[in-house]
Amino acid sequence: MRPSRRAFDELRPVSIERNVARYAEGSCLIKFGETHVLCTASLEDKPPSWLRGTGKGWVTAEYAMLPRATHERTRRESSSGKPSGRTQEIQRLVGRSLRAVVDLVRLGEKQITIDCDVLQADGGTRTASITGGFVALQECVKWMMERKMLTVSPIKDHVAAISCGISKGTAVLDLDYAEDSEAMTDANFVMTGSGGLVEIQGTAEGAPFSQEQFLDMLALARKGIGELVELQKQAVA
């Protein structure tokens, strides 16, 4: 039995609430069980300097955890002068994942920044950030189209992410912190709504995992991401 008493292929309760930030062009609060992430999309009417004159836009992301997102207070990274290596790795992952489903030429010479702020952490903050970040991005594009800033949506497909792992010899879906901290293998999968693979991150914490176990995790990830994409569609309908 899993610590959360879920079935091996069962997601935590997931909810997506749109329009939670008054001033952002797009926003949502996504909850994966006790992991809560606020995602906002901010539009700039110019691309990064290195893209000016190319006709292309850009989608990027920033990620941060509030000081009391965990059991003990953590120091704000802004007070130390720079983000940690973990933070940089996560925000680059979120940006790459979102750009995988955006036609940057159709976006035009504009930049959309997705801010992912973890209000409460219980495992899976990066996968929640990607899944919620897409909803915020889609809301931003909708805002632009309503104002005739775009005539065709640059979004080509949905994208979502989920964690899987090998716990007590069994492949399981959507690890919370209690499970993640003792899992033999931890992996994050990013996929599009049509089933394309965007990125896979996997690490064996103990014994190496087999090809069969990897395929078991991949099958679980496809199932979980399919469910998440349906929740995204319901949220923005």
UniProtKB/TrEMBL annotation:
<feature type="region of interest" description="Disordered">
    <location>
        <begin position="69"/>
        <end position="89"/>
    </location>
</feature>
<dbReference type="GO" id="GO:0016075">
    <property type="term" value="P:rRNA catabolic process"/>
</dbReference>
<keyword id="KW-0694">RNA-binding</keyword>
<feature type="compositionally biased region" description="Polar residues">
    <location>
        <begin position="80"/>
        <end position="89"/>
    </location>
</feature>
<dbReference type="InterPro" id="IPR001247">
    <property type="entry name" value="ExoRNase_PH_dom1"/>
</dbReference>
<dbReference type="InterPro" id="IPR015847">
    <property type="entry name" value="ExoRNase_PH_dom2"/>
</dbReference>
<comment type="function">
    <text>Phosphorolytic 3'-5' exoribonuclease that plays an important role in tRNA 3'-end maturation. Removes nucleotide residues following the 3'-CCA terminus of tRNAs; can also add nucleotides to the ends of RNA molecules by using nucleoside diphosphates as substrates, but this may not be physiologically important. Probably plays a role in initiation of 16S rRNA degradation (leading to ribosome degradation) during starvation.</text>
</comment>
<keyword id="KW-0548">Nucleotidyltransferase</keyword>
<keyword id="KW-0819">tRNA processing</keyword>
<feature type="binding site">
    <location>
        <begin position="124"/>
        <end position="126"/>
    </location>
    <ligand>
        <name>phosphate</name>
    </ligand>
</feature>
<dbReference type="InterPro" id="IPR020568">
    <property type="entry name" value="Ribosomal_Su5_D2-typ_SF"/>
</dbReference>
<protein>
    <recommendedName>
        <fullName>Ribonuclease PH</fullName>
        <ecNumber>2.7.7.56</ecNumber>
    </recommendedName>
</protein>
<dbReference type="GO" id="GO:0031125">
    <property type="term" value="P:rRNA 3'-end processing"/>
</dbReference>
<dbReference type="InterPro" id="IPR018336">
    <property type="entry name" value="RNase_PH_CS"/>
</dbReference>
<keyword id="KW-0808">Transferase</keyword>
<dbReference type="GO" id="GO:0000049">
    <property type="term" value="F:tRNA binding"/>
</dbReference>
<keyword id="KW-0820">tRNA-binding</keyword>
<feature type="compositionally biased region" description="Basic and acidic residues">
    <location>
        <begin position="69"/>
        <end position="79"/>
    </location>
</feature>
<dbReference type="Pfam" id="PF01138">
    <property type="entry name" value="RNase_PH"/>
</dbReference>
<dbReference type="InterPro" id="IPR050080">
    <property type="entry name" value="RNase_PH"/>
</dbReference>
<dbReference type="GO" id="GO:0000175">
    <property type="term" value="F:3'-5'-RNA exonuclease activity"/>
</dbReference>
<feature type="domain" description="Exoribonuclease phosphorolytic">
    <location>
        <begin position="10"/>
        <end position="139"/>
    </location>
</feature>
<dbReference type="InterPro" id="IPR002381">
    <property type="entry name" value="RNase_PH_bac-type"/>
</dbReference>
<dbReference type="GO" id="GO:0009022">
    <property type="term" value="F:tRNA nucleotidyltransferase activity"/>
</dbReference>
<feature type="domain" description="Exoribonuclease phosphorolytic">
    <location>
        <begin position="159"/>
        <end position="224"/>
    </location>
</feature>
<feature type="binding site">
    <location>
        <position position="86"/>
    </location>
    <ligand>
        <name>phosphate</name>
    </ligand>
</feature>
<dbReference type="InterPro" id="IPR036345">
    <property type="entry name" value="ExoRNase_PH_dom2_sf"/>
</dbReference>
<comment type="subunit">
    <text>Homohexameric ring arranged as a trimer of dimers.</text>
</comment>
<comment type="similarity">
    <text>Belongs to the RNase PH family.</text>
</comment>
<dbReference type="InterPro" id="IPR027408">
    <property type="entry name" value="PNPase/RNase_PH_dom_sf"/>
</dbReference>
<dbReference type="Pfam" id="PF03725">
    <property type="entry name" value="RNase_PH_C"/>
</dbReference>
<dbReference type="GO" id="GO:0008033">
    <property type="term" value="P:tRNA processing"/>
</dbReference>
<keyword id="KW-0698">rRNA processing</keyword>
